Amino acid sequence: MEPEGLVTICPGMASADLFDGWFYWGGALCWEFVFTWALQLAQIGATEPLKTELFQAQQNIPHLLRSVSPRNFPLLTTTAIGQFYVDWLNARKQEDWQALHPLAHFDRFDLPALHIGGWYDPFITGIWQTYQRACAVTSQPQKLIVGPWKHFPWRQRVGELDFGSAANRSVDEMQIDWFNFWLKDIDNGIAKNKTNLFFLMGENTWITTEPSASIVVYYLDSDRSLTTVKPTSPHPNIYVYEPWNPTPSTDYAPVNQKNINDRWDCLTFYSGVLERELSIGGVAECWLEASTNAPDTDWVVKLLDVYSDDREILVTMGVLRASYGGKLPSQDQGCYRIPLRPTYHCFKPGHRLGVTVSSAAFPLIERHSNTASQPSTSVLSEWQASTQMIFPQSRLHLPVLV
Questions:
Q1: How confident is the model at residue 393 (pLDDT cuts 50, 70, 90)?
Q2: Of the residues 1, 9, 60, 100, which has the maximum number of CB atoms within 10 A of its CB?
Q3: Same-domain check for residues 123 and 242
Q4: Can you tell me the distance from the alpha carbon of 10 to that of 177, in angstroms, rounded to the nearest whole number?
Q5: Which of 55-69, 90-104, 198-212, 284-298 has the lowest average pLDDT?
């Protein structure tokens, strides 16, 4: 049971699952976050001269992310203060984290909770799943608020977009109201209002009643179109992924992906121009029909809002290591089910939907070596290029609001 005296909780921008959605994403190490956070945490307990050396390394993070192998950074891998970082690298399976996984023990708790997240927060999947699990096993009220934000701050300007003044919702006040009700018996109405609050990006407004969603399937056709009509062509699209020149990533934010998507190691599929608004809400999933000639590789899928001026703004994204979950990649066609991070987004008339498939998002996730060994243990001489085939039976399951 919960600790004596614990009345309520308010998890904000945090994931209960420390494995998938925190340190790892679909089996791939979240390299940028893991390395950056490890340098920050190690400084807390370090003494001189190590403390200064870690601080100096932190000032050079952009360079180090692109030049250092996860296991080849002595300040963390050969010092006692960095042992936690080595543990993170070694724990590459869900079961390694089970003892630290609150979702596995939620049936022992019965607490009211106010859950707060951001669509571009790296922990949004964990926030979403924590709320769903709490609703399933507890009898106490659960409330979820998700804005267009990154991790912090909770403001209207995110990435390259301004979501308007409505995005400046006072989360602090909502938390105070929540605690005042449960801890001080102040009847301010927050617990009686059982509706969740989701910010619908594009429309830039809050939804206070949860609409239902129906799944609409879009196919990734051979002509690089994104269509609701089932393709008849059997011919795949092909790209080559080279680990020594991995597909780069931007910040996980509403940022233009056009320059990246124009590379040879990306395939982008476009819908026709929308004649009316198309709003989505929830978790989209890409069923990627693909093959690779590598012993293992990564699949990265991005959903884009393509503007009339050809900007390709990131809406959400999913990652899957081909071997994650025990599945062995093959030169034969196989189906890889890749959930994208939760989102609520409105595609406006005159815009198009876009889906990009690649095999890297570096340094957001670690680059895969295209070998059977873990990327962090492989050496440069072992790296190999891979030929990736994406078949037109590939499809995006999109939760369209109705």
A1: very high
A2: 9
A3: no
A4: 11
A5: 90-104
